[in-house]
Design brief:
Layout lengths: L6 H27 L7 H5 L5 H10 L4 H15 L7 H19 L7 H22 L7 H33 L10 H12 L1
Length: 197
């Protein structure tokens, strides 16, 4: 399978991003309800905003897809009227870079829940970089800042790892992923081996 993005790959990535941008827009209201002072439950839920990157990569499995999906989803969320405004694009870029770096570290060869979860953590680190730059995190007490960061990373791991992985596995069962991942010679050989036994 070629590792270069084809037009089909880009279009499917954008469709995934559009779906997630709508989910993100709805998720904003749920996220805001979870903002209870001190316990950082909202940060646990923050991982949802990184899922476009991992779902797209787990489906398409090519370099650049995680970054493209995250930026496109942030753009779509902006267009749908997110209260967070244009800074969403900066978050999308930083989150996309974080996720993409993890998949690159695995040479784009790991499609596991663990690899996707690590990409979610790295996307969370990208978002945290902007949060620190904006300066409001310095107002938190040390224990609360640590809780904030830990909850963000746990949420990134859970949403982008196991949840994204299970979502893609469910899509694989429908056969829809074969549109971008056609059967290879190795797939046919594996089927032949199964049928012999």
């Amino acid at each position: 399978m070629s590792k270069q993005l084809k037009l089909t790959d880009i279009l499917v990535t954008v469709v995934i991003a559009v779906v997630f941008s709508i989910i993100y827009r709805v998720w904003t209201d749920i996220y805001n309800l979870a903002k209870l002072p001190g316990i950082q439950l909202d940060q646990l839920m923050y991982g949802m905003w990184f899922m476009a990157a991992t779902v797209a990569f787990l489906i398409i499995r090519k370099p650049g897809v995680a970054f493209l999906a995250e930026v496109a989803a942030a753009s779509g969320e902006l267009i749908t009227g997110s209260p967070y405004g244009v800074e969403l694009l900066t978050y999308g870029v930083l989150q996309g870079i974080g996720a993409e770096l993890v998949f690159a570290a695995f040479l784009y060869q790991r499609y596991s829940a663990a690899a996707a979860g690590l990409a979610g953590v790295a996307a969370g680190a990208g978002a945290l970089a902007l949060d620190f730059f904006k300066g409001y995190l310095i107002e938190l007490q040390t224990w609360n800042l640590i809780l904030y960061i830990v909850m963000r990373f746990i949420g990134g791991y859970l949403f982008c790892g196991p949840l994204a992985y299970l979502l893609v596995k469910a899509l694989e069962k429908t056969g829809v992923t074969q549109l971008v991942r056609p059967a290879t010679a190795e797939d046919y050989q594996a089927l032949d081996r199964k049928n012999v036994h």
